[in-house]
Design goal:
The protein is built from nine helices and no strands. The protein is mainly alpha-helical.
Length: 188
């Protein structure tokens, strides 16, 4: 799948990406996704369809790229209390956002793409957020699960439930956190 050119980090390439992404977001907000086509996106973004095909390959890859960019966190996780309370609050919000109609569609878009780069980006975004909790706990001398434990025992079950079962509620998410971080965990 060597269809992607190597876009430069700024300049025209960045403007094209921003215009195309914005066009897709606007169209998804007002149209049925089945009615959206690359020529329509190109017209709205004021680029040629060949520009989109050259950069993204096809509509599914473009939708996955837009979804991945939308999943990028805008800030570090909030600090609400203890490291465990911070993790619980973040995980509950994460599960709620990913289980929403928009969140589920973004996950489907990312997973439907043949290029795994956007899925890897999303995993990286989640890991970056979790690393903040780990660093905060370390600074406070608190015991805290590893990144692998958090991904395997909190994030993975949440995403699996969202994709293949009932959306997880706050109680389920708190139970997952409790399994990796039991109450009364002593300082290390």
């Amino acid at each position: 799948m060597g269809y992607r050119e190597n876009p430069r980090p700024g300049g025209r390439s960045a403007r094209v990406q921003a215009a195309v992404h914005q066009s897709v977001r606007d169209m998804l907000a007002t149209m049925d996704r089945a009615d959206i086509t690359i020529p329509m996106i190109a017209q709205r973004a004021n680029v040629t369809p060949s520009t989109i095909y050259r950069r993204w390959g096809d509509l599914q890859e473009l939708l996955a790229d837009v979804a991945a960019s939308r999943l990028r966190p805008e800030a570090e996780p909030a600090k609400v209390g203890s490291p465990r309370e911070d993790l619980e609050a973040w995980a509950e919000q994460y599960a709620d956002e990913m289980a929403s109609g928009v969140g589920r569609q973004m996950l489907r878009d990312i997973l439907s793409a043949s290029d795994v780069a956007n899925a890897e980006k999303c995993s990286g975004y989640t890991q970056q957020q979790l690393a903040v909790f780990i660093a905060r706990a370390k600074e406070q001398g608190e015991a805290f699960p590893t990144l692998t434990e958090l991904m395997d025992h909190v994030i993975s079950p949440v995403i699996y439930r969202i994709l293949f079962d009932q959306a997880p509620g706050p109680d389920y998410v708190r139970k997952l956190v409790a399994k990796v971080m039991p109450e009364g965990t002593l300082k290390s």
